[in-house]
Amino acid sequence: MRPVMVPFSSLVLSALLIACAGAPAPTPAVPPPDPPPSAAAVDPAAPPVFDPSSITPEVKRDTMEVVKSVISELNQVIRRKDYAAWRGYLTAEYSTFYSAPAVLSEMSESAVLKRQGIKLESLQDYFLYVVYPSRQSVRVDDIEFTSPTQVKAVTITPSGDRQVYYYLEKVGESWKIGTGR
Fold this sequence. Notes:
Layout: H1 8-20, H2 39-42, H3 57-79, H4 83-87, H5 92-99, H6 101-108, H7 111-116, H8 123-134, E1 142-147, E2 150-156, E3 162-171, E4 174-178
Antiparallel strand pairs: 1-2, 2-3, 3-4
């Protein structure tokens, strides 16, 4: 019998394959997936979510009294067509928003204003042609807190519908008309 010549590298490879054949291949450690980020982790600048039930009945009652008083004063100011006094009840955001030409133009497209041939061009026009006809005798039946310093002033219609006539924001010690945004 003649010896068979097998290259040394083939012998080493065969020996390694035989030695490893019975042992399972090591599996790389895979870390578990990260948990989804919480809302606060997504945007740390985002304000916490407001829970209206955090408002005590006493705070709601007291705020309701103040809001009714503010709305009563506003009704008088509007009935007098006192634009300068009305401006004192507005937040800066409200004044800016309802002074914007695009907003005034869009509001001018309402059926009522178009029928009367009115084109709003200023915040004063908005006051005279939108606020004055619709807000002289607003009644507040309820308030809804949307934040610790913001409320919706609600009137309940005879049919039971809840209509929001004002979004109010507490600015310093005063309640002012806001945009609700």
